Amino acid sequence: MASRRSASWFGREIANGHSRSFATTSKSRAPSDAAFTLLIAKGQDVFRESKTSKRFDAERARMVEYDLRRRGIHDLKVLEAMSRIPRHDFVPPHLAHAAYEDCPLPIGSGQTISQPYIVALMTQALHLKGGERVLELGTGSGYQTAVLAEVGAEVWTIERLAEHAEAAKQRLQEFGNAQVHFQIGDGTLGWPSAAPFDRILSTGGLPSVPDALIAQLCEGGLFVGPIGPLAAQQLMRIVYHARGAHSENLGGCRFVPMIGEFGWRDDPYR
């Protein structure tokens, strides 16, 4: 299972400018203002009608426009999903006022919910069209999981910490996400009984992509996640074929390590 960034570790990332260093590799342009206005209007219909979401509609629309679209997130499915999903329902109540800032927020046990831009960038990098089988390593609050499901993927998500897994499961069930399957365990082992997957998304840093995960991808399957030593990771998009792999570097990043048999053995930042 992947451990996401601790608040202090991610704070150093922001201070060092890494959170702004990511670049999308597609040359597609951002959606037109007319198209974007339409998707925001659809988003105002509310994700699954949470109790307090209407209080945050304007803040969520601002986040999607200024922190996502104007920074190069062009996938309409991703923008629409994140215009609908009430991020404030995925953070502790006392932090709801900060839910639509482009920063991570602590969710307990040294874990965080990732900043919206990173969630959008990683989801866009998966090139989801709808109907794909996606393995997510590290459920956390369930926000990234919800985005994947809202885009149209069927998601298998693994979380090492039982308290986060159970809370995320309850939260997503309340929102009606039937296309999400949960497991408590070591994400670096994958989910062999549910394989093969079209996509694998890691929310924690790995020294390299484990063979155990590659073996669970279908032909032409795609991995997205941070790879490399703790202090110098790269956000990678890797497509695997029988004849080899094709890699794209989406930019420098610093995530806390993914703890597991084929990941890191311990988290030095906790």
CATH topology: Rossmann fold
Mean pLDDT: 84
Summarize the main sheet: 7 strands, mixed
**Helix percentage:** 25-40%
Count of individual domains: 1
Structural classification: alpha/beta
What global shape is seen? globular
> What is the CATH architecture annotation?
3-Layer(aba) Sandwich
Estimated share of beta-strand residues:
15-25%
Measure the end-to-end span.
16 Å
Main β-sheet, spatial strand arrangement: 5-4-3-6-7-8-9
- Give the number of helices: 8
**What is the assembly state of the chains in this entry?**
single chain
Low confidence ranges: 1-30, 34-38, 40-48
Rg (CA only): 17 Å
Q: H/E order of the elements?
A: HHHHEEHEHEHEEHEEE
Question: How many beta-strand elements?
Answer: 9
Q: For the record, what CATH class applies?
A: Alpha Beta
CATH superfamily label:
Vaccinia Virus protein VP39
Structure in words:
The protein is of the alpha/beta class and 270 residues long. It has one domain: Rossmann fold (3-Layer(aba) Sandwich). The protein is built from eight helices and nine strands. Strands 5-4-3-6-7-8-9 form a seven-stranded mixed sheet. The model is unreliable at 1-30, 34-38 and 40-48 (pLDDT under 50).
